[in-house]
Design goal:
Keywords: Leucine-rich repeat, Repeat. The protein is α/β, with parallel strands linked by helices. It contains 4 helices and 10 strands; from the N terminus they run ααββββββββββαα. The protein has a single domain, classed as Alpha-Beta Horseshoe (Leucine-rich repeat, LRR (right-handed beta-alpha superhelix)), CATH 3.80.10.
Length: 274
């Protein structure tokens, strides 16, 4: 949709806006992707769920707090973006999307997840950053194909021991929580490639040199008295890193991007070989 149309939509009341958008959806998009982000939507009309061949649905940056039951008819949906909305609970229909592999739920008002989330057997990427979690949502530990978990900027104080059963997990993002110690359970998860505990309350770090899969540890903005010891080739972003790591600290975003690309490449190779 062009900028001119977006400019017009910005002045349309939300109820008329959603009728305008859905009314102009005449046929399945060629790329099987529907992007209704940033359109002031307060509800998703059921008519938007008629394209049962959809693979990607973007609903980010609206005013949604619920979704119609008809959403579960999108049986081939693989990506669903619900970030930057007003959800206080996860709509039941989301848990009935059998092919869903990527779910963005960041920047909402969630404080728990339903047990039905465990039915998403294909889920590999889950973003839950900037919500209202005070406890780690333990149903996440049942998502055995999960590879990336983002729980940054909540109020989590500890991780459950059963998170180590997520043997496919490669990156975990926990920045901006209330951790007072490096989660002991992560020391048992040698397969992790990326660990982000930036902006917590950790005072002392254990050695991570035994973690054979580790590629990047982000630990800056903690009141720590030491830096974590790591193996050869592991990048660190934080205080007391050595000179080569200090360069990375000045450009932490680049370091994260590079490592994330490496992890994605490895995961893609593994998927192709299966």
């Amino acid at each position: 949709m062009g900028n001119a149309v977006r400019g017009v939509i910005a002045f349309i009341p939300s109820e008329r806006c959603q009728r305008f958008l859905v009314g102009h959806l005449k046929e399945m998009p060629l790329d099987r992707t529907l992007d209704l982000s940033s359109h002031q939507l307060r509800r998703l009309p059921a008519a938007a769920c008629v394209f049962d061949e959809l693979v990607k649905l973007y609903l980010s940056d609206n005013n949604l707090s619920s979704l119609p039951a008809e959403l579960q008819g999108l049986r081939k949906l693989q990506l669903l973006a619900l970030d930057f909305n007003c959800f206080e609970e996860l709509p039941a229909a989301v848990c009935r999307l059998p092919q869903l592999s990527i779910l963005y739920l960041g920047n909402n008002k969630l404080h728990y997840l339903p047990k039905q989330l465990s039915e998403l057997r294909e889920l590999t990427t889950l973003w839950l950053e900037t919500n209202c979690f005070t406890d780690f949502p333990e149903v996440v530990c049942e998502l055995t194909n999960l590879k990336t978990l983002h729980l940054g900027y909540n109020q989590i104080r500890m991780l459950p021991n059963n998170i180590q059963q997520l043997e496919e997990l490669r990156s975990i993002w926990l920045a901006g929580n209330l951790l007072t110690e490096f989660p002991p359970v992560l020391l048992e998860m040698h397969f992790l490639a990326v660990i982000d505990v930036d902006r917590n309350r950790i005072r002392q770090f254990p050695s991570l040199s035994h973690m054979s899969g580790l590629k990047l540890i982000i630990y800056d903005h903690n009141p720590c008295i030491n830096a974590p010891t790591v193996g050869d080739g592991v990048r660190r972003v934080g205080r007391w890193a050595d000179s080569s790591d200090d360069d990375l600290e000045d450009n932490a975003t680049k370091a994260v991007s590079e490592i994330t690309e490496e992890v994605v490449d490895v995961q893609s190779e593994e998927k192709q070989s299966d």
